[in-house]
């Protein structure tokens, strides 16, 4: 048995993990007399809680800072939304539960279990043009924590509290035929098609540039080989005419005729 008598304590948010541990191990905690509720651990600070038994207090009494500080809805689509949040450091936190249900009807409350490092999640398979209540709840029970699994929550827990925060969101207009099976969001298929189309166009342009480069290099190589082949061929010798040929061809035609006439006479 652990005795906490005469041990002053500053009751604040940093003691919330101790409070949860003591509540889960009441069999080994005692303070004399009637156990955990008498003569046990008492608050010394703040002044408004001085002298009160620590385990008889609820967390909102000694810690006014909520577990989930901010909650926002992003990327609102006809069939899905992205929920993101910020939370304070709490070592006793084992994960989060994101619960949601349609306010326009009587749909079953659905939710997802996430680990303590998660700060956002996409909620899919929603109905278009529908108002939803979305809540993020801190989970301090490690036994019920199975990350990335689904769960159902009672409606009474979907309110703002010390460990939870809620907000409302309305999905965009859309047709049921636009929902996809894998991810019911109209943006996901279009973005996927855009990425694939960009990849195809990029591959085609790269292949075209490669072909042009190979063709240019091949042409330059063939041209260079032809030039080298021409240089290696022997040069043909030129046949020059002698001056005798020119002199014979340039003789006086009148002298030739006179000689011919004399012979005939």
From TrEMBL:
Keyword Ligase set for record = no
Q: Which InterPro entries match?
A: Cys-rich_flank_reg_C (IPR000483), FN3_dom (IPR003961), FN3_sf (IPR036116), Ig-like_fold (IPR013783), LRR_dom_sf (IPR032675)
Q: What residue stretches are annotated with the Fibronectin type-III domain?
A: 65-161
What are the record keywords, sorted? Leucine-rich repeat, Membrane, Repeat, Signal, Transmembrane, Transmembrane helix
Residue ranges spanning the membrane: these are 197-220
Does Repeat count among this protein's keywords?
Answer: yes
Which segment of the chain is annotated as a signal peptide? none
Entry-linked Pfam families: fn3 (PF00041)
Protein name, as recorded: Fibronectin type-III domain-containing protein
Lineage of the organism: Eukaryota, Metazoa, Ecdysozoa, Arthropoda, Hexapoda
